[in-house]
Specification:
By secondary structure, the chain is of the alpha+beta class. 34% of the residues lie in helices and 28% in strands. The protein folds into two domains: 255 residues, L-amino peptidase D-ALA esterase/amidase, CATH 3.60.70; 120 residues, Roll (Ubiquitin-like (UB roll)), CATH 3.10.20. It is built from eleven helices and 15 strands. The strands form two sheets. Strands 1, 2, 3, 4, 5, 6, 7 and 9 form an eight-stranded mixed sheet that branches. The longest helix has 23 residues. The protein is globular.
């Protein structure tokens, strides 16, 4: 189900190579309240810089996005190319260029092939309304193996509305804001003063608790547009309607975030890392991220090796407060260690069986408080190395 009042297009521009649609458009029939969260990486792609400047006004009507080229580390020319893309598209769409967001994903440090891109823009505008949101999810893929989509519906005073999102990402994933790219659309009417806080909170509970390889991209972008086409009353902060909407947005973003981890480059495992017994939730997240990003832990998951000592080591260097003599650890419901000591050979055998599953949970109790956190991660396989060794060739 697609929110009302949006149209889509996807065409081939052969930005990296021919043979697939790699240029997409989201167009709202009317200007929408909008907010975005961008990468915290100090090296930001040109599209991120331009879009961040424009989104500060709180309104957007269109997004143009390409895969195959990140337009990052491309200097003054990269900014000029991003701006020119929106100026040309604005002419074809008949709207103000300031209402167009631009996003890119792909190889860093390569100039955008502007002649190919510019020749595709008239077709992109002409095709507006002929593609689906699913088509757009396909067009933004790079090393992804499947498109990532999520939808939720709600009702306010008898009026139905929809939230639909797409995302891309499989490698260079530890967002610190959002995923590499995610675009979320709703036909509900959202208060312009609340939309940014609503999105930021949802991102923190979804894209900010996933990691595939511990790398934060130069292009990370999560955009939310709300055009009000469903005809709902305006949703304002601190109302029952806002609570309902925020919960649905959380669900959409978390579903997309989990899909990214499951599609992690070369991943064979989807692992939920839970930290309990921390002095604070922030400390728990610190420990969870250390475990989730440990190459030794992730390779043990791949090898189905119940090497719980690597996990204790990771929480130990995470910076989180803990009591070494109170640490406990479980693989699903199998206790591997208690009071900081190995639970024995039977636990080893049962824990190994857990690690043979495609999905499982690792829980570590730090023994010093009531703080807790969850992070979702994957293993690291031989295939991850192969994909990233050959990415540019």
């Amino acid at each position: 189900m697609t929110p009302k009042g949006y149209r889509f297009a996807a065409v081939e521009a052969a930005i990296k190579k021919p043979g697939r649609k790699d240029l997409g458009l989201i167009f709202s029939d009317s200007p929408a309240a909008a907010a975005a969260v961008f990468t915290t990486n100090k090296v930001k792609a040109a599209p991120v810089l331009l879009s961040a400047e424009r989104i500060s006004k709180g309104t957007a009507q269109a997004l143009v996005v390409n895969s195959g080229n990140a337009n990052a580390c491309t200097g003054v020319q990269g900014m000029s190319d991003a701006r020119e893309t929106t100026l040309l598209l604005a002419e074809y769409l008949g709207i103000d260029a300031e209402l167009i967001q631009v996003s890119s994903t792909g190889v860093i440090g390569v100039p955008m092939p502007m002649e190919r891109l510019k020749s595709a823009l008239p077709r992109l505008a002409a095709e507006c309304g002929k593609a689906s949101l699913d088509d757009l999810a396909l067009a933004i893929m790079t090393t992804d193996t499947f498109p990532k989509t999520a939808v939720r519906t709600g009702t306010i005073k008898g009026v139905n509305y929809t939230i639909a999102g797409i995302a891309k990402g499989a490698g260079m994933i530890m967002p610190n804001m959002a995923t590499m790219l995610s675009f979320v659309l709703t036909d509900a009417a959202l208060d312009a003063n609340w939309i940014k806080r609503c999105l930021s909170s949802a991102v923190d509970r979804s894209f900010n608790i996933i990691t595939v390889d511990g790398d934060t991209s130069t292009n990370d972008t999560c955009l939310l547009m709300a055009n009000g086409a469903a005809g709902t009353d305006l949703i304002c902060e601190d109302t029952p309607e806002a609570i309902q909407f925020a919960d649905m947005l959380d669900q959409v973003l978390l579903e997309l975030a989990k899909q990214i981890v499951k599609d992690g480059e070369g991943a064979t495992k989807f692992v939920e890392i839970r930290i309990t017994g921390a002095v604070s939730d922030a400390d728990a997240r610190r420990a969870a991220m250390a475990v989730s990003n440990s190459c030794l832990v992730k390779t043990a998951f791949f090898g189905q090796d119940a090497n719980w000592g690597r996990i204790f080591a990771a929480v130990g260097y995470s910076g989180a407060e803990l009591d070494p003599d109170a640490l406990s650890l479980w693989f699903d419901d199998i206790c591997m260690a208690s009071g900081g000591i190995f639970a024995g050979g039977d636990a080893e055998a049962l824990g190994t069986l857990v690690l043979r599953n495609k999905e499982f949970t690792v829980t570590v109790d730090l023994g010093v408080g009531k703080g807790q956190a969850t992070v979702y991660t994957s293993d690291i396989s031989h295939e991850y190395v192969s994909i990233n060794a050959d990415y540019r060739t």
